[in-house]
Automatic annotation (TrEMBL):
Domain Peptidase S1: 36-255
Single GO cellular component term: extracellular region
Subcellular locations according to the entry: Secreted
CDD domains to which the protein is assigned, alphabetical: Tryp_SPc (cd00190)
The protein's name: Peptidase S1 domain-containing protein
Presence of the UniProt keyword Secreted in the record: yes
Pfam families on file: Trypsin
GO molecular function, one term: serine-type endopeptidase activity
Length: 255
């Protein structure tokens, strides 16, 4: 089976209220943050394509390095944001230190993004200056083929280890597994989940929660972008924008 990696970051609010916000339960607006439940510290530099998207200097969302001037994230992470309010930080496993910050030149969110149904939840950020690549800063290849269920995955991120709880300074990771879109829609009890999504699920006590989105789900290549879920590691799937469903859109908007 292919190995896959989901990169998640702690963020502020998801933005517009949708039916899926109800799946997260009743929590304050600034508590809609993905976290990793049941994880452990990730090795230093293990995920060199991972970025921290920051809004007004505060950690906001995840993303991935597609090329030297292109970062990919979720559309809901940048809804209503101006480029001047955002930065991406690359090259560090720690939230409070290290890394290099880059300014955003433009935001190219999918015009079909539906904040109610959380479909077409994808955006491209173009940087003002090219990223300098190192052993800890690299691009990720993008999957163009449709992948099904039973793909072994690793979830990683800086979210809360439990809810309520504090944020870990070190990047966390945990093993998960993909399921079919049909099973995902049934378990989440919502018809918005379709073949433009990819979902993960293992068992209660392992997964994401109160969530930040925009981070990459990777199986050798990036297969997903964190979009939504139902807290908190209680045996429900976590859902992602399926990268292979947006190959043409990505190619058009990255240049």
């Amino acid at each position: 089976m292919k190995a896959c990696l989901l990169v998640l970051f702690v963020s502020g609010a998801l933005g517009a209220v949708s039916p899926f916000n109800n799946l997260f339960g009743t929590v304050p607006k600034d508590e809609f943050d993905w976290k990793i439940v049941g994880g452990s510290d990730a090795p230093e530099g293990a995920y060199p394509y991972q970025v921290s998207l920051r809004r007004f200097g505060s950690h906001s969302c995840g993303g991935s390095i597609v090329d030297a001037t292109t970062v990919m994230t979720a559309a809901h992470c940048v809804t209503g944001a101006k480029p001047s309010a955002l930065r991406v930080v690359v090259g560090s496993n720690k939230l409070n230190s290290g890394g290099v910050s880059y300014e955003i030149e433009s935001i190219r969110d999918h015009k079909g993004f539906d904040s109610w149904r959380l479909t077409n939840d994808i955006a491209i950020l173009k940087l003002k200056t090219p990223i300098t690549f190192t052993d800890k800063v690299k691009t990720v290849d993008l999957e163009t083929e449709y992948l099904g269920a039973e793909v072994d995955c690793v979830l990683s991120g800086w979210g809360r280890l439990n809810y309520p709880g504090s944020l870990p300074n070190n990047l966390q990771h945990i093993g998960l597994k993909t399921i079919t879109s049909e099973d995902c829609a049934k378990l989440l009890n919502h018809s918005s989940v379709d073949r433009t999504h990819i979902c993960t699920l293992t068992k209660s006590g392992e997964g994401a929660c109160h969530g930040d989105s925009g981070g990459p789900l990777v199986a050798n290549k990036q297969i997903g972008i964190v979009s939504f879920g139902r807290p908190c590691a209680k045996g429900y799937p976590d859902a992602f924008t399926r990268v292979s469903a947006f190959t043409d859109w990505i190619e058009k908007n990255r240049y």
